[in-house]
């Protein structure tokens, strides 16, 4: 199993809109992305994180090149970001 963690610098005023992007693309992610197993939104005082679960690390890496991610999600989030997202992939033993 692997996790893709994307940390987003989003102002408090824009967090509801960013959460709307998460809601809009959660089910398409789960339904269409190879190896996708889960997707969770974590809202903290300092940032917003989206934690994606995958069957394998290769699936997480491949998702970053999909049209769903590059065209839909990134485009929809762009107006709310204060900087570049921090993207990390973790593999569980």
Question: Your description of this structure?
Answer:
The chain is α+β, with helices and mostly antiparallel strands. Helix content is 39%, strand content 30%. The chain contains 3 helices and 4 strands. A 4-stranded antiparallel beta sheet has the order 2-3-1-4. A hairpin with a 4-residue loop joins strand 2 (36-43) and strand 3. It is globular. The model has no long low-confidence stretch (mean pLDDT 96).
List the helices and strands and how they pair.
Elements: E1 2-8, H1 15-32, E2 36-43, E3 48-54, H2 57-63, H3 67-77, E4 86-91
Antiparallel strand pairs: 1-3, 1-4, 2-3
Q: What are the main properties of this structure?
A:
93 residues, alpha+beta, 4 strands, four-stranded antiparallel sheet, 3 helices, globular
Largest sheet data: 4 strands, antiparallel
List the secondary-structure elements in sequence, H or E.
EHEEHHE
Q: Write out the strand line-up for the largest beta sheet, numbering strands in chain order.
A: 2-3-1-4
Helix and strand content put the structural class at alpha+beta
Low-confidence segments, ≥5 residues, pLDDT <50? Answer: none
Shape: globular
Strand content: 25-35%
Helical stretch count?
A: 3
Instruction: Provide the gyration radius in Å.
Output: 12 Å
- The helix fraction, in percent, is 25-40%
- What's the average pLDDT? 96
The N- to C-terminal Cα distance equals: 8 Å
Write down how many β-strands occur, each being a DSSP E stretch of 2 or more residues: 4
């Amino acid at each position: 199993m692997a996790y893709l963690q994307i940390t987003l610098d989003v102002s408090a005023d824009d967090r509801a809109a960013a959460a709307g992007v998460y809601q809009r693309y959660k089910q398409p992610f789960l339904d269409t992305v190879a190896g996708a197993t889960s997707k969770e939104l974590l809202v903290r005082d300092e940032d917003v994180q989206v934690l994606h679960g995958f069957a394998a690390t290769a699936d997480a890496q491949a998702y970053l090149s999909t049209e769903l991610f590059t065209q839909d999600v990134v485009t929809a989030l762009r107006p709310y970001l204060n900087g570049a997202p921090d993207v990390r992939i973790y593999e569980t033993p």
